[in-house]
Predict the 3D structure of the following.
Amino acid sequence: MATLISTTNVGLSELETAPGGSNPPSNLRFEISGRKGWAEGVLGANTYAFYTWGYGYGSGGGYLDAIYGLAAPTSGTNPPLEIGDWRGLQYYFDGSPFDITYRYTNSLTNTPDDDCQVDVVITDSSVNYSIFGGPNTPPNFAFNVNMPANTSAGAVQIPGFQPDTYPLVKNVFWLIQINTGPFFNGGTFTMDVNGSNVFTIAVNAGPNNVQYDWNSGTYGSTSASGIALNLEMN
């Protein structure tokens, strides 16, 4: 004989424990679950005990770390949410249409004096956590781009990419370090995200290994193709 299951107290553990975590508290509400950001759970700073899907967080209602494809709330800092808001969305970069790539150009011509290396992290908005690779926290840089003078490369998938592992973040926050040698002649460094400039700075002659983050410029935005970084030294 078939047994009916109760529909009055259905748990949300399917949301709360993927891809990690433990059973949710008994007073969990879907609106609370949906509002938490990806950076607050096991993929982030661990200030919140359970991973959730990332409508964003922050008492000011900024919703900076939302997942790409989630619409901003219509009003207030904690508006009503519906399960239908999550329908048909993709939550992770899969390396197919949603990829994370970089390209670079170093137009300076003196080799090896004008060679440089740029270390890159894509972070949460507080610049406390990298979305690439488990527990990495800045300044443990997620990947390095070697840029020899008078060379270029394009559409290179970031090292160590693992499909369906990195959250498909809506906004691209970043931390970089520009490294040059003792005989570097000086230049101008720019970084674009999906075709929009987020950072430009004059790099002094001589050795450099200075760190900058998105607060030195702006953050970028994920597109229908994912994240495409463009690094240039001129």
Q: What stands out?
A: The chain has two domains: 12-74, 99-233. The first strand starts at residue 99 and ends at 106. The beta strands are 99-106, 116-123, 143-147, 151-157, 171-180, 187-193, 196-203, 208-213, 220-221, 226-233.
